[in-house]
Design goal:
InterPro entries: G6P_Isomerase, G6P_Isomerase_C, Phosphoglucose_isomerase_CS, SIS_dom_sf, SIS_PGI_1, SIS_PGI_2
EC number: 5.3.1.9
Strand order of the largest sheet: 1-2-11-10-8-9
GO molecular function: carbohydrate derivative binding; glucose-6-phosphate isomerase activity; monosaccharide binding
Pathway: Carbohydrate degradation; glycolysis; D-glyceraldehyde 3-phosphate and glycerone phosphate from D-glucose: step 2/4; Carbohydrate biosynthesis; gluconeogenesis
Distance between the termini: 65 Å
Bound molecules: 6-O-phosphono-beta-D-fructofuranose
Low-confidence stretches: none
Structural class: alpha/beta
Function: Catalyzes the reversible isomerization of glucose-6-phosphate to fructose-6-phosphate.
Length: about 550
């Protein structure tokens, strides 16, 4: 079999890029008045306008051929059928079973249904006030202690669904082993009213266990009750015995399974803070929205399939246009944590350099994902997007309607979003820039000297994702869209998107360096590390 980069379709795409290089995106609109309509797709309440890209019909056709030739439809089927796609850990990849019917996966559906029932009962007990803390008071604050996938998903969704939250319960998230995170959070809380959710699939993650132990000490110390853990701690984990050893009651442990990856887990009991904050009904709407996107993904041909098209556009820019990063810019205050969430999803999944058999790949893989909400980013890094030397494809995300009554704000927000994608595409010519300086009163010579600084090359690609309102259903669909995009890219690049061995070395080294800092072991490291350890010791042990 040809390697990916030697395949005929890859070669044809390389030629396509050469042809399109000299055509502007704006020019493509002039050539084809139907372009916007043709390159807009909708599914599960999400509309994707991908017309402002360096593509034409032959490009789309070649890209979808690439998807076919790399076996994307078969891989989608394999995931939904429960094949062990995570080959390095010998695991199935079944986050879709957390939210869909998956009739052919009765075993998973049965355990998921029972976990959802346990969550519903618990949420009901907290909301109704039946669950009381050790001193008999109601729970008013929930602190999720977790990191990575056990933090970013529930934190992002809780913020996104702020308008759906019950005013009687506040949620807080502690992830960093930096004690400032926990102590700043606890400063404002009353232990008698606080519930901790220790979220850790493995229950071995050092940051989470350190924070959980300190939280437990704070609780027991302040309530003067060594047994308070029973009423104030629950856990979400697949390591039930380990959580019990920590002191959490077996009844208070919600399950996780090895067929759900951490960064794909917000749909499981890892989403407990979401259900507590927004109610079980809204949590189920989130699942239902994702399930609608799953159905679209599994049933739709590549050329009409939103996640597949988004994945192919990413491949197009990463592999054929040399883009090394991808910006995600939600024009939505409530999506303030969204880019950070997608960063883990994408970069922990596709930040790999060997294929599924362990051979080093000869093409680039997952890009650097970055971004911030609009309009804030416009007054910061958009300068680089418009005039910098990097090629950065952008996803703009925006809703038609807002949750707040300030109609004028939303129209301004929406106008800013459209202005940015249009400015990236059109740019500003040298002549326009010069004329603007002349209108400002500069003479022609000075205006010509200044014009290069104001001109903008334009021809910079972007997609716009649009939905009616940021609801639980829409959010579920939006997250699932990105999950599937990342998966499709991994299939095209032939990498395993579901392991994360690259994070292990740092953990191992930390286990060696920490005892050296505290003086419990010697410091047999490299010269730089030894010197830094010595400085720490000099500061703390003199
Ligand atoms: O270190 C990376 C990672 O394994 C992520 O993949 C995961 O989401 C996070 O740590 C937390 O893991 P756990 O839920 O087991 O504490």
């Amino acid at each position: 079999m040809n390697t990916l980069t030697q395949s005929p379709v890859w070669q044809a795409l390389t030629k396509q890029r050469q042809q399109l290089e000299h055509m502007s995106i704006a020019g493509l609109f002039e050539q084809d008045p139907q372009r916007a309509e043709k390159y807009t797709l909708s599914a599960a309440g999400i509309t994707l306008d991908f017309s402002k890209h360096h593509i034409n019909d032959p490009t789309v056709s070649l890209l979808t051929q690439l998807a076919q030739s790399r076996g994307v439809p078969a891989a989608i089927n394999a995931m939904f059928s429960g094949e062990k796609l995570n080959n390095t850990e010998n695991r199935q990849v079944l986050h879709v079973a957390l939210r869909g019917d998956c009739k052919h996966l009765p075993e998973q559906r049965a355990v998921v249904r029972s976990a959802l029932q346990k969550m519903a009962d618990f949420v009901n007990q907290i909301h109704s006030g039946h669950w009381r803390g050790a001193t008999g008071e109601r729970i008013t604050d929930v602190v999720n202690i977790g990191i990575g996938g056990s933090d970013l998903g529930p934190k992002m969704v809780c913020r996104a669904l702020t308008p759906y939250q019950a005013p009687t319960l506040s949620t807080h998230f502690v992830s960093n082993v930096d004690g400032a995170d926990l102590s700043e959070t606890l400063k404002h809380l009353n232990p008698a009213n606080t519930l901790f959710v220790v979220a850790s699939k493995t229950f071995t993650t050092a940051e989470t266990l350190t924070n959980a132990r300190s939280a437990q000490a704070w609780l027991n110390g302040n309530l003067n009750d060594a047994g308070a853990t029973a009423q104030h701690f629950v856990a979400v984990t697949s390591a039930i015995d380990t959580a019990c050893e920590f002191g959490i009651r077996r009844d208070n442990i919600f399950p996780m399974w090895d067929w759900v990856g951490g960064r794909y887990s917000l749909w499981s009991a890892i989403g407990l803070p979401i259900a507590l904050a927004c109610g079980m009904m809204n949590f189920e709407r989130l699942l239902a929205g994702a399930a609608r996107m799953d159905q679209h993904f599994s049933d739709t041909a590549p050329e009409r399939n939103l996640p597949v098209i988004m994945a192919l556009l990413g491949v197009w820019y990463s592999n054929f246009w040399g883009a090394q990063s991808h910006a995600i810019l939600p024009y939505d205050h409530y999506l303030g944590e969204f880019t950070k969430y997608i960063q883990q999803l994408d970069m922990e999944s596709n930040g790999k350099r060997v294929n599924r058999r362990g051979d080093v790949v000869e093409h680039s893989t997952g890009p650097v994902i970055w971004g911030e909400v609009g309009t804030n980013g416009q007054h910061s890094f958009h300068q680089l997007l418009h005039q910098g030397s990097h090629r950065v494809p952008v996803d703009f995300i925006v809703s038609l309607a807002s949750h707040h009554p300030l109609a004028d704000h939303h129209s301004q927000l929406f106008a800013n979003c459209l202005s940015q994608s249009r400015a990236l595409m059109l740019g500003k010519s040298f002549e326009q820039a010069q004329a603007e300086f002349e209108q400002m009163g500069f003479n022609a010579d000075v205006a010509r000297t200044l014009a290069p600084h104001k001109m903008m090359p334009g021809n910079r690609p972007s997609s716009t994702l649009l939905f009616e309102k940021l609801s639980p259903d829409t959010l579920g669909a939006l997250i699932a869209l990105y999950e599937h995009k990342v998966f499709v890219q991994s299939v095209i690049w032939d990498i395993n998107a579901f392991d994360q061995w690259g994070v292990e070395l740092g953990k191992q080294l930390c286990n060696e360096i920490h005892p050296a800092l505290t003086g419990a072991s010697a410091s047999p490291f490299d010269g730089s590390t030894n010197a830094l350890v010595a400085r720490y010791q000099a500061h703390h042990h003199t």
